[in-house]
Amino acid sequence: MSIDVGGAVLPEGGTVRMGLIGLGSMGRHHARVIRAVEGMELVAVADPFGDKHGVAGGLEVLPDVGALVAAGIDAAMVAVPTYLHEEVALALAEAGVHAMVEKPIAATAESGRRVADAFASAGLVGAVGYVERCNPALLEMRRRIGAGELGAVYQITTSRQGPFPARIADVGVVKDLATHDIDLTAWLAQSTYERVAGEVTHRSGREHEDMVVATGRLANGIIVSHTVNWLSPVKVRETVVTGEKGAFIANTLTGDLTFVANGDVTSEWDRARAFRGVSEGDSTRYALSRREPLLVEQENFRDALWGRPSEAVSMSEGVNTLRVVEAVLTSAATGQTITL
């Protein structure tokens, strides 16, 4: 359980009156999903720039977080641009409203810590929306790693590449996309980052970086690497975990999970036989139950509000991820490996 506030903060099984602030590219999907979650009711929406995607339905589009709170909500989904996360989240905490904030928790780790502390001090449920943890392929991979099916884990690599997303204006590729990979890597490995090194480049003429390659080591000895950009014509979303028994390969675009076992077939080719590594064994593609990750994410938040066991991502985890993100950017700027 990622979040524990000492029991239910709202009546279990009762309806959670939800508010949503930010009706942009992510907010429109949250509006749809909240309406589909059993036990949640979307009762108020807010966006100072209006409702360009037409998701409010019969609800009035409120101008700001103050009006959202005044609508009498129990909890809120924060889907405003990153630079506004702290301001909106602190207003919700001050008003006693539980919240899930889209990733990253804030624009900086220092800002994120203020948000996390405010929710903890008020005894409120505070979560961060790292939706990749709800991807069916990664959920099954984590379960199987935990069951020992991979043996000792040696390495985790991620690749997250594709065309530029027009929705992004206020952060670079590290805070927008690499943050997913840093979070899910620590979650899969159940370990924090020990050190990281990063290289970035600017190719699109924007203020922020659009490509990054980062490597590092976790506190438990697992080595990691992340290749992330939004300048590739080919969309790739892949996580590979290599261990003593083989490798798990998760395609998070399709939700597919494959296991490639270490082989035990003896080669007759002299050069291959002399190699003292592993060979490719049988491949297994698992049949998985596929549910929309964003729906699972909102159910996790609801369960945390009801005091049930929940895999919602805590705000303290969100701050830790942002610390690693900032270390990658510092490494890229200084040419130094950063120890956390």
TrEMBL record:
Domain called Gfo/Idh/MocA-like oxidoreductase N-terminal: residue spans: 16-130
Ranges of residues in domain GFO/IDH/MocA-like oxidoreductase: 139-248
GO molecular function, one term: nucleotide binding
A Pfam family hit: GFO_IDH_MocA_C3
Keyword 4Fe-4S in annotation: no
SUPFAM superfamilies: Glyceraldehyde-3-phosphate dehydrogenase-like, C-terminal domain, NAD(P)-binding Rossmann-fold domains
Alphabetic keyword roster: NAD
Domain of life: Bacteria
PANTHER family assigned: BILIVERDIN REDUCTASE A
Name of the protein in its database record: Dehydrogenase
Origin species: Ornithinimicrobium tianjinense
